[in-house]
Amino acid sequence: EGSSREEEPLLADKERQAVNMLVDLFEPTVSFYEGEPLKALSTLAYSDIYHLQLSAATAFSEISEMDTRPVTREALEPILYLLHSPHINVQHGASAAMGNLAVNVENKLLIVRMGGLEPLIRQMLSPNIDAQINSVGCITNLATAEENKMVIAKSGALLPLTRLARSRDLRVQRNAAGALLNMTHSAEHRQQLIGAGAVPVLVELLASDDSELQYYATTALSNIAVDDSGRQLLWDTQPVLVDALIRFIDTSTIKVQCQAILTLRNLASDDQYQIQIVEKGGLESLLPLLQSEYDPLVISASACLRNLSIHPDNEKHILDSGILPCLVHLITESGNEEVQCHVISALRNLVANNDADKSMFAESGLFDHMKAVLLSPDASDAVVGEMVAALNVFVLDESLWPYIIDDGFLELLIPLTRSPLVELQYNACVTISSLAGKASEASDRLIQVWDRPDGGLQSYLALFLAVDEGMDPVLRSVALWTVLLLLESDSPDLIQLVTSHPSIIKNIDKIAAIGSLPEGELRNSAYTSDSLAGLRSSRTFDGDGFGGDSENPDDDADIYNRMINIAQDVVSLVHTLEI
Residue 460: pLDDT above 90? Predict the structure, then answer.
């Protein structure tokens, strides 16, 4: 007991010295995260006296508002100690300091590594609103670091976060909803959120009048709707979701509008949602936004329309809405690459959906706008790629292919057969092949491009048919298929151009003589057999042509052997023509 009385004044002296030092040092130029200032604050933090602890917590809170630099373990230790205080005001100041420091990436990681989550979760469970606000706000910041998310998910934080998203205090709700949103950026964490019961809470937040809550909820739901399982859960359990999202398109802030539309876009990855969104009036809400002057709205609306256009049952609704001229106009008038790609893809879907007459697309000026973009030196590779992929579909339509061949697209496609972009090159080649299937009706146009531009059709065919081990067998197969279609035309002049070429038929003879690929030997291709779908549908032969079925369509040997078969078919046809 005597020893204890002798130690008390000494301890009080240290505390008094610490207080005096802090009073003298409390200036903006002083760093309190190191040296004597940190030592003085730590002395107060570790004191048994409530008012000294509160002073330390308040000081850390105020200092961290102005200075959020990366700090050391030594600087965080007293703050973490204060988080465990039994006094709510001390906890409040410490959690505020922790939240301020957690805006820095290095600090976010260090706080979690040092065990900061446990006292923060405990504060979330407090009935004190200020404690809830600060602790949830801190966890919201911590959850922006990818490395922390798994730790947070396994810490037990998701259940109290979900509960606090229903708080009657708007500040708590916002922080909790923000934390839930930050946990939706990976499939694994989204599943953990679903397990914590977050989905119905997020949907409930859509009914809030607060635009921040609306934004957090729609964005989180948009991320959940990325996964097949997430969309199915939303379909099975949230029947009011689509109605709420469409309401936001019509009435909310631009930021929430964009997120609501993007959520609908993700939902519209599934057939059932594609139909439901249109049935509930989503199309009518989207279409005016395509004419907005605000690019993010146009991007979101065109992306959603792209997915809605996939379902054949939506084609009539979309076309009857009168939006076709607007979509065509956006091809050239939108300066945004994403919008152009989405619109072109939507038009491609609408054309591909059924066999009805599609002349309205050509009459709307579609091909004039597409040609203008393809001729533009400023057109991006992504936009050109979407254009050519669309032409690959349009050319299969009986009412559209004459416009494509008459409007000079062959001259634009031939140079693209040498594109370094694999998909663009393939689509250009297949579209040319499809047009070659119309050689009997359009032989004059094919003859015109035989030697121009860039060496013309003959140069493309000669290059791809040269006996070169480096040539991809799928691309070579497309070239062979094109030759076969040209030779089957009713045009003697076109047939003469092909058969009299100095290398085309000779090289096909060599390819045909190679024979089938030995069993077990594979030739790598940049393409899969799935990519031959357009080629097969453009022209179907009986027997060994691309119209036939394969037991293993993805097998490289199958691709290679089909190439040999087409070459042999060409050789046989040439012999027949010579007789």
Answer: yes
